[in-house]
């Protein structure tokens, strides 16, 4: 890769080398203690908090010249957020970018895990808004850190209990809490619970960056990730009665799309790359 | 009777300033016994209770506790996780204000179930059943199991707090003015309920109160405190009917009688 392709006046991947080192040290610690939230000195990025500054800093710290980057937003490669972050890193690193899951070595994601199973050697970077799974019940950071340290996790099931008491089933549909490596309870960022099983024993390395809260955590490859549940209300993923209106898939995560102002709506795959590839295959066999 | 105490307190001292806090307190507590701590405001009752329930480290002195597994432990020599484990499984702490002891943001059922979930209960049906039977025991309407405690009256909140504490069948319960702030008729029913539960479950209880009527009704033994020191101890009836120390005499004589 030719370093001249980087925009002039900027360091490779925007952050300076010392910052990247600092983030890498936090990442190493996070990988060593799966699910544990490591504080790091989050930097200002050239966009607002909540747009993925945490994920971008992690990506900037681990990206190398030989990487191939894919960025998705709610599964889609072509939304504003995904396009902008991809353009940002193409501009400031010159690395190859792709929309194909299997080609990418580094995938930055907002709120989805690709449908296609990840492989060993791939790195998945999540953008995380609120890293603390206990925050909903305990506003004090001092107290939540103590609760993690003492494995005082009884309150996590309260949330699920309240769901069942109110709705008759566990209604939490995203940011569904998981137990990582039998030790730390972790918020898997707002991915739908549909994606939770994909985190379990994944061959890929999963890194989580929260920019505003300045926390990094990780799931190393082949780590046990268990979704919390009750014996008589076991963990279940969402199911749809419809198939994707474009590719006809009946096993992917579907988004509901409003088609006109008459209330017509369709369901389509949220993972655009998965949908496109299925269409291409259908055309070949037809 | 050849019974061992459940709690041994030896020369416990926690002073914020001279005469402020509690000083050189020693006593033994036996299973099934209710010990009342009485005294005026600022006499160190609550400080003593906080020290006993490992929420406030004392300056001096030791507290030994006999666990369910028949093992003597020095409470302040334990790791923080062991201390919390004891608090969750073997003890109950009933706060004066139910808001301090309850989770106001979640339903009554979840409040009762929290300790069970924390100790590993993972069956929703069982949790639900236990919560209902406890609401029944403390005379709360089962139909309100999914309501938040914010919608409960003060007396109901206090009864909910008691249920939440007793659900794991503790051996030792600390109570800080459990009837404070309740009107007299509600107080009487709550005391009745407490006395019944204490007898049924053979609980050891340390109860802090400034109300001598509460002490007489619930406690078998009394500790009278003033300026952080124990001025008199003994059987409740003995202390209240034949007070020896000048302060206790003052305390007893100042009770309004109709």
UniProtKB/TrEMBL annotation, chain A:
InterPro entries hit by this protein? PhnJ
Question: What's an example of a GO molecular-function annotation for this chain?
Answer: metal ion binding
Alphabetized Pfam families for the sequence: PhnJ
Query: According to the UniProt entry, what is the EC number of this protein?
Result: 4.7.1.1
This protein's UniProt keywords: 4Fe-4S, Iron, Iron-sulfur, Lyase, Metal-binding, S-adenosyl-L-methionine
Which GO biological process annotations does it have? organic phosphonate catabolic process
> So what does this thing catalyse?
alpha-D-ribose 1-methylphosphonate 5-phosphate + AH2 + S-adenosyl-L-methionine = alpha-D-ribose 1,2-cyclic phosphate 5-phosphate + methane + 5'-deoxyadenosine + L-methionine + A + H(+)
State the source organism's domain of life: Bacteria
Statement: the UniProt record of this protein carries the keyword Lyase: yes
Its biological purpose is as follows: Catalyzes the breakage of the C-P bond in alpha-D-ribose 1-methylphosphonate 5-phosphate (PRPn) forming alpha-D-ribose.
Family under the similarity heading? Belongs to the PhnJ family.
What protein am I looking at? Alpha-D-ribose 1-methylphosphonate 5-phosphate C-P lyase
Recorded source organism is: Amphritea atlantica
From TrEMBL, chain B:
The species this protein belongs to is Amphritea atlantica
> A Pfam family for this UniProt protein?
ABC_tran
Instruction: Name the chain's protein.
Output: Putative phosphonate transport system ATP-binding protein
Query: Does the keyword Nucleotide-binding belong to this entry?
Result: yes
Q: Which PANTHER family match?
A: PHOSPHONATES UTILIZATION ATP-BINDING PROTEIN PHNK-RELATED
One GO biological process term? organic phosphonate catabolic process
Single Gene Ontology MF annotation: ATP binding
Domain named ABC transporter is located at 7-252
Q: Which UniProt keywords apply?
A: ATP-binding, Nucleotide-binding
**Per its UniProt record, what PROSITE patterns does this chain match?**
ABC_TRANSPORTER_1, ABC_TRANSPORTER_2
Q: Highest taxon of the source?
A: Bacteria
């Amino acid at each position: 890769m030719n370093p001249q392709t980087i925009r002039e006046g900027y360091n490779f991947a925007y952050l300076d080398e010392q910052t990247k080192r600092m983030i890498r040290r936090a990442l190493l610690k996070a990988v060593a203690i799966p699910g544990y939230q490591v504080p790091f000195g989050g930097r200002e990025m050239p966009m607002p908090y909540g747009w993925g500054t945490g994920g971008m800093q992690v990506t900037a710290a681990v990206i190398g010249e030989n990487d191939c980057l894919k960025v998705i937003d709610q599964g889609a490669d072509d939304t504003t957020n995904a396009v902008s972050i991809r353009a940002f890193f193409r501009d400031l690193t010159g690395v190859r970018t792709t929309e194909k899951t299997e080609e990418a070595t580094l995938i930055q994601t907002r709120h989805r895990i690709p449908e296609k199973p990840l492989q060993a050697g791939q790195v998945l970077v999540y953008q995380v808004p609120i890293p603390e799974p206990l925050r909903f019940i305990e506003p004090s950071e001092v107290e939540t850190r103590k609760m993690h340290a003492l494995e005082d996790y009884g309150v996590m099931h309260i949330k699920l209990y309240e769901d069942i008491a109110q709705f008759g089933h566990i209604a939490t549909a995203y940011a569904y809490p998981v137990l990582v490596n039998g030790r730390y309870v972790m918020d898997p960022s707002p991915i739908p619970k549909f994606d939770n099983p994909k985190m379990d024993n994944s061959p890929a390395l999963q890194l989580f960056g929260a920019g505003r809260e300045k926390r990094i955590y990780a799931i190393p490859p082949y780590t046990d990730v268990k979704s919390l549940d009750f014996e008589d209300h076991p963990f279940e993923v969402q199911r749809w009665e419809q198939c994707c209106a474009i590719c006809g898939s009946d096993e992917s995560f579907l988004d509901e799309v409003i088609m006109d102002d008459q209330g017509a709506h369709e369901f389509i795959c949220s993972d655009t790359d998965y949908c496109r590839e299925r269409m291409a295959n259908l055309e070949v066999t037809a | 009777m050849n019974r061992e105490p459940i709690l041994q307190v030896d020369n416990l001292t926690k002073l914020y300033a001279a005469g402020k806090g509690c000083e050189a307190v020693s006593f033994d507590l036996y299973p099934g016994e209710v010990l009342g701590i009485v005294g005026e405001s600022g006499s160190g009752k609550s400080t003593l209770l906080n020290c006993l329930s490992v929420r406030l480290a004392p300056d001096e002195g030791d507290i030994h506790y006999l666990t369910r597994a028949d093992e003597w432990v020095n409470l302040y020599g334990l790791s923080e996780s062991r201390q919390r484990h004891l608090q969750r499984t073997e003890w109950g702490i009933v706060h004066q204000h139910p808001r301090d002891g309850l989770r106001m943001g979640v339903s009554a059922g979840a409040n009762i179930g929290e300790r069970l979930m924390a100790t590993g209960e993972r069956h929703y049906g069982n949790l639900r059943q236990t919560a209902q039977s406890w609401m029944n025991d403390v005379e709360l309407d089962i139909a309100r199991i999914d309501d938040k405690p914010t919608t409960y009256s003060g007396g109901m909140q206090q009864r909910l707090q008691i249920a939440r504490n007793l659900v794991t069948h503790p051996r030792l319960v600390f109570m800080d003015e459990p009837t404070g702030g309740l009107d007299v008729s509600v107080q009487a029913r709550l005391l009745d309920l407490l006395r019944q539960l204490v007898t049924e479950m053979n609980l050891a209880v340390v109860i802090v109160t400034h109300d001598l009527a509460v002490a007489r009704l619930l406690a078998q033994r009394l500790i009278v405190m003033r300026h952080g020191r124990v001025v008199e101890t003994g059987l409740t009836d003995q202390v209240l009917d034949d007070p020896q120390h000048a302060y206790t005499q003052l305390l007893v004589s100042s009770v309004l009688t109709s």
